[in-house]
Amino acid sequence: MSILAILEQRAGAWHRMSWETLAAAQQLGADLGQPVRAAVAGDEVSTPAAELSAKQLERVYAVEHALLANYTPDGYTAALEQLIAAAQPQVVLFPHTYQVRDFAPKLATALGRVLVSDVVAHRVDGGAPVLVRQLFQGKMNVDVRFAGGPPFFASVQAGAYRADKVVAGSATVERFVPELTAAAIRTKPLELFRESQRAVDLTAAEIIVSVGRGIKEAENIPIVQKLADVLGAELAASRPICDNGWLPMERQVGSSGQTVSPKLYLAVGISGAIQHLVGMKGSKTIVAINKDAEAPIFEVADYGIVGDLFQVVPALVEEIQKAKG
Amino acid sequence: MKIVVCIKQVPSRDSVLRVNTAGTWIQDSDLTYEINEPDAYALEEGLQLKEKHGGEVVALCAGPAGAAQTIREALAKGADRALHIEEANLAAYDPLSLARLIAAALATEKPDLVLTGLQSDDLGYGQTGVILAQLLGLPHATIIMQVEKQDGGIRVKRELEDGWFQHVEMPVPALLTIQSGINKLRYATLMGIKKAKTKEVKRLTAAELGVAPAAAIRFERVYLPEKSKHTQILEGLPKEAAVKLVEKLKFEARVL
Fold first, then answer.
1. Which of A84, B25, B212, B241 has the most CB atoms lying inside 10 A of its own CB?
2. Which residues of A touch B220 (CB under 8 A)?
3. Does A267 reach chain B within 8 Å, measured CB to CB?
4. pLDDT means per 10 residues in chain B (256 residues)?
5. How many CA atoms lie within 13 A of A88 on its CB side?
6. What is the predicted pLDDT for the residue at A247?
């Protein structure tokens, strides 16, 4: 039995979460006393496979087929189903990327298994893995155990494991060529694109004031704009604010928006769903203002004020103005 | 176009959550519920597609008797009829067996398009739609921000990370999981609320559908997460807290 980490690259460029997942696989492998293998798929993956061969792994699978050049759920599911049948792993780990979310549940279903998605930690108890995942947008955690037989499938949340913990070593590369037919691939992926050149580069901002659902309505945005103005900060938002059109999409921080790490990040009325946290938890100093003392944003904040933002923010504006003279 | 939209009822967003005494789930006896937000966007997308191309929108909900309220709201917004898989103990179903339940309910429906939200706000698996597509033998795409009808199928805009998107074409029938923000949600009109009372809600049970609960994954313990950082909570009236925060930012964090 072994651990199989299925990693993600596009046109030779690694998805950054691949290394975090490899670190998770190595740690789980050590805890379970099992060797770790890694796989990377595409039409030609010799370069990323060679990079993996310099890590502490038992084997690297270079899963290659012309029909894997562009990602499709049908192509990836068929290819990886064959790889899993050949490799017989006990645990299959993925990074919880948008692409993995698109095909991993299908792959697990094809094999009659259930994927434990978005895992943040693990431990081994009685020789079996126990995985920790979040419920209610991060307000609760749950320890999950597999009840059926292997292979066990899990995907690893962004930032849950550190990429710099990957252990170096050496491994042989095995080329795995799945049997795929063009007719079995039902979706046709077209080119990737971005909406427009980003007019706002939040990543360059030293101070960011970010606003969430707690602001209640569009008419209240000037309250936080004023705070941003006195701080000389960029105004940003969590996804729901941009969904509602209260601020433009280009001001969104989080997994589908920009990833920022300013000197100071003030989260105002943001509960701190994981999709938002992954975009800002690298900030040097984090301040959270929220009426709910249990909000997950307080888990990453250095300073917190539990209170009504409509009272706290104007008071803060006044004090900052005083402090700046 | 015949469109089935899968909707789920979840605890209201601002609920104060407590772990139950057995530590297996939350205390849910005194909670209020609402439609899962991404599902509300999926429903709206279904309604807009029907308005453009004609057809029918069927709302499907698996949940306890109390989910009837969420179903009524979907009907009031414009869904033509509903399927309610009435099941008091959804916790006994893992994502695969729950999708089997939905697949069985759809066996006779033969929709052109099945829409779901991309994930639920309670369990957050983000899997039900994709599993359902596999069980129904349908092509799918996830995290969708636009749906256009074209010859022989649809063209969708899939959201990727870091501001990237991709168009994907596929034949119908197909399944899509919808991202929040794809459209602007409507409110139910008074007329809609009135009409909803006359619309058909077909109730189905797991026994009728011939699907037994299964748990390939098991919740061992539910608990409040431990804080990863030591947060200094600044107490006091708003003005006092603001004074303390400015002090900290100036002299401790040195960011002002």
1. B241
2. 130, 142-145
3. no
4. 98 91 90 96 98 98 96 98 95 95 96 97 96 98 97 95 92 97 94 97 96 94 83 94 94 88
5. 1
6. 94
Answer whether B134's CB lies under 8 Å from A109's CB: yes
Check: CB of residue B117 under 8 Å from CB of residue B125.
Answer: no
CB contact under 8 A, A292 and B124: no
Give per-residue pLDDT as tens, A1-55: 899 999 999 988 999 899 999 999 999 999 999 999 999 999 999 999 999 999 9
Q: Which residue reads 């084997």 in tokens?
A: A59
Q: What is the pTM of this model?
A: 0.91
The answer to whether B231 faces chain A, any CB pair under 8 Å, is yes
Polymer length in residues for chain B = 256
For CATH 3.40.50.620, list the domain ranges present in chain A: 3-184
3-class secondary structure per residue, A189-253: EEEEEECCCCCCCHHHCCEEEEECHHHCCHHHHHHHHHHHHHHCCEEEECHHHHHCCCCCHHHEE
Structure tokens at A72: 């499709």
**Residue holding tokens 């984090």?**
A286
Two tokens, residue B45: 């997308």
Measure B245 CA to nearest chain A CA, in Å: 7
Asked if B132 reaches chain A (Cβ–Cβ under 8 Å), the answer is no
Same domain, B204 and B235: no
CATH superfamily of the A202-324 domain: TPP-binding domain (3.40.50.1220)
Q: Which residues pair with B10 in a beta bridge?
A: B34
Could you tell me the residue range of the domain that residue B246 belongs to? 231-256
Task: Name the residue with tokens 């419920």.
Answer: A135
Contact A299 B228 (CB under 8 A): yes
Q: Quick check: B231 and A193 CB within 8 A? A: no
Give yes or no for A110 touching B (CB within 8 A). Answer: yes
Question: Which has the closest alpha carbon to B134: A76, A33, A286, A317?
Answer: A76
Query: Which pLDDT score, from 0 to 100, does residue A195 have?
Result: 76
Beta strand A303-306 with A285-290 is: parallel
The answer to whether residues B101 and B203 belong to one domain is yes
Q: What CA–CA distance (Å, rounded) separates A105 from B118?
A: 13
Residue from B130, B159, B175, B230 whose CB has the most chain A CBs within 10 Å, to mutate: B130
